[in-house]
Amino acid sequence: MKQRLVYVDMMRGIAIMLVVAAHLIQANVVDGINSRAFMFINSFHMPLFFAISGFIAQRVYKPLMDVKSVLLFIKRKAVALLVPLFVWDLVIFKLFLSNEWNLPSIEDLINEITHPRLWFLQILFLIFFFYSFYLYICERWNKNQNIVKDLAMITLVFMLYGVYYLLNFKYGSVILYSIYFYMGVMISKHQSLEKMALNPIMLAISFFVFCMLVGHWNIHSDSYVTDLIKNLIDPCAFIIVLNVCKKYEKIKASEIISQWGRYSLEIYVAHWCLISIGSKWSLNLPYVNEFWLFMLAIFFSIPIVYSCIGLAKIIEVSPITRLILYGRTVVSTKKWTSLKIK
Predict the structure, then answer these.
(1) In total, how many domains does the chain have?
(2) 205 within domain boundaries
(3) 225, part of any domain
(4) Which of 101, 119, 128 is nearest to 272 (CA)?
């Protein structure tokens, strides 16, 4: 019986810490979104999350045999991702963190669908929605896991995004983050690609490219050069984090970081509450040296992360509150009984 993969939880732990740190800078620093520390984190932290999600998905979810299993998969993902999305955005933030007590309106619901605060959950659900078709067609036409056929199946899935595009939603975001999601899937699924990603030469190249380009990315620029820089930075960041976590998964700090990863969803949905409350008494820091700003953001992220974990442990006592607030039917720290859920 195999336990959770510590290095994968470590990857998620690092990613969620960066999310909290970026939002701390955004909320507590004068013109924080223009700081280089914020841009550094923002250049790769969310693509890293989606790549990790794809990496985990390949290890956890079995192929879908029929239409019924596809619908069941979508239903489970809707509960796991959309329930906390709507509950936190329309109830928690609206009723408990707003200046006025107003019941959610139809307009709020429409805004939630089009511009959700917790947008990561919405995009991830859409990616999993289409990923269910990938699992289905792979089971029918690519049981031998041929890499060329896999790429063809992924291309077919991306063609299905055209239907989503016709609905005039955030097509670009879904496409962009799907690229990183399926990158994680492919590296996790094919040993040759995983071996390549873990090759020391590939790590050295990725580290060099990341260091050379990350300082030239600007969140406010919409040029093709900026897009190219980001699309080079993001896979390099994933390869770096994968290698580091894989190599150091047995150190003492690994259990601490992996716990952050096990509670990454709980931290993601709740950390805005603490940042919103804290920012009311914020010092509203003026310009700070970018390196120390980054280190301060990481330092102050730690109590927020553990506050979110503590809240989650209280909520997990009740299956009902666990389901409503986190979309979970099992406790976050439950071990994987296998690398494939049967």
Answers:
(1) 1
(2) no
(3) no
(4) 119
**pLDDT at residue 332, rounded to an integer:** 56
Domain residues for the domain of 286 are: 6-192+249-326
* Residues in contact with 61: Cβ distance below 8 Å, sequence separation at least 6, in sequence order: 73, 135, 340, 341
Q: Which residue has the tokens 């979309």?
A: 327
Q: Please, which residues bridge with residue 341 across strands?
A: 61
pTM as predicted = 0.89
Interval 120-149: pLDDT, tens: 999 999 999 999 999 999 888 888 888 999
Query: Quick check: 95 pLDDT over 80?
Result: no
Predicted confidence band of residue 202 (pLDDT cuts 50, 70, 90): very high
Specify whether the CB–CB gap between 92 and 273 falls below 8 A: yes
Residue 337 has pLDDT above 50, yes or no: no
| Closest C-alpha to 314, from 304, 327, 325, 303 | 325
Is there a domain that residue 334 lies in? no
Token code pair at residue 280 = 């009311």
Q: What's the pLDDT score for residue 282?
A: 53
> Nearest CA to 86 among 121, 123, 53?
121
Determine the Cα–Cα distance for residues 229 and 250; give it in Å rounded to an integer. Answer: 33
The one-letter code for the residue type at 32 is G
CB of 293 closer than 8 Å to CB of 26: no
- State phi, psi for 44 to the nearest 5 degrees: -145, -10
pLDDT 10s digits, 96-118: 766 666 677 777 777 777 788 88
- Amino acid identity for residue 207 in this structure: F
DSSP per position, 164-215:
HHHTTS-HHHHHHHHHHHHHHHHHHH-HHHHHHHT-HHHHHHHHHHHHHHGG
Token representation of residue 205: 């190249």
Q: What angle do CA 98, 102, 106 make, to 5 degrees?
A: 115
Domain assignment of residue 207, yes or no:
no
